[in-house]
Amino acid sequence: MRRTRVVFFAMIVGAGGLVLSAAPAVHAAVVNTVVVKKVVVGTAPEGTTFEVNVTCTTGDVDTVDTNVHFDNQGNATDNSTVDVPSNADNDTTCTATESDTQGATATIECTKDPAESDVTVEDNTATFAADESGLTATCTVTNTFPEPTTTTTTLPPTTTTAPSVVTVQPTFTG
What is the pLDDT of residues 145-169, one digit of tens each? Predict the structure, then answer.
């Protein structure tokens, strides 16, 4: 048997009047999600770590500012899923940036999941439509490291010359 409990608040108003009201139900925040992924192409120096910053703005209000960390192979070292509160009146725009690429060439591309959802993506930005929830954008940061340069020394070919043939004419004096 399930019981429902309603809490009533009493408030004395004016000349002794009593007003009763039910407490409003508390709803969980409705959220969207940005998933941050890292791809490392080439070899990152041992011990290298990467930090990707995700900021989200709804209207003129910053709603999210968080960092996601990765090791030198692109594995997340903390939670790579960022919850983004939805807003009934304004779109929410999230941007992924990487301030230190550790010597690599970096690109960031955001995609929406599923493709037909109410998320607009462009480069490193995902915009969630107002009053939408349960949407996901994935921002993939790719760091490409140059192949190590190797120096090859080419020596000129060695030439050996055969000794010259000397013809000697004996001289007899006698």
Answer: 998 777 777 777 777 766 777 776 7
Q: What is the largest CA-CA distance in the chain?
A: 163
Q: List the CATH number of the domain containing 39.
A: 2.60.40
Does residue 94 belong to any structural domain of this protein? Answer: yes
Query: What are the beta bridge partners of residue 39?
Result: 142
Left (φ > 0), alpha (ψ -120 to 50) or beta: where does 77 sit? Answer: alpha
- Print the domain residue range for 106: 31-144
Structure tokens at 40: 């490392």
Residue segments in the chain with a per-residue pLDDT below the cut of 50: 1-28
Residue 63's alpha-carbon distances to 49, 93, 128, in angstroms, are 26, 10, 13
Beta-carbon count within 10 A of 144 CB: 13
